[in-house]
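[Q] Does anyone have a clean structure-token version of this?
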Amino acid sequence: MVLDTLLEYGFFVVIAAIVVIKVIQVRWKVRRGDALFRTMFPELQPHLHPVKMLDFVVARLSRGKNPGGVWRNPPGFADGSARISMVEGREHVTLLDAAGTERARFIFEQHAEGGVLRVGKGKVTVNTRDINNQRVRYWHPDREFKWKRRGGVWSFTSRMAEREIESSDRTSFSNDSSSSYDSGSARTAAAAAGIVAAGGTFDGGGASAAWDGAGSAGGGTSSDTFEGSSASATAY
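[A] Here you go.
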């Protein structure tokens, strides 16, 4: 009887230890994914996180075509507003904070997969068709990434990291996501992946134009970009 009790107790201890280890591993991956994303893609910081852009595109598509004016508290950027204007047939979006200060701007386009956001030289393609397989793909002349969801967990993939970095679904990137890690852990994680914090290119060259079709879709001329626009590089 005593032996059975000890064995049963030991079994639950082992299970508990496995759960704790898994939780620690997920949290580490979240922090590492956060650090890599911020280090590798400074032009999207600090406001244009893939999950936020996904939320915005889903809500924007539900509003129909060409909804000009000011959009208060748009999903993804609910603590501010979006000023929308049509310029030469293209939808220009300027994100503002509660005080009316510009945060970021981009051009929005409807796409067969969902929506496209053009940020400076970069192109973000948001796939909203399959709610169980939502994806965000980013192409830039110097770098690119894919962000996709699997069973409630977002996986961040970039050629610079050479493997997927998992990030918990909508947990780490709140409006004040600086609490998820500090600049020191960002530099440490980036260094662990062989990334120079001030860098952001694939082996010093341009991004592959054939990477999952993203390059061919995003390799437009400068006329495809919001001239002079980019996300603010100010840190949280």
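[Q] Thanks! Anything notable?
[A] The helical segments are 2-40, 50-62, 183-192, 214-218.
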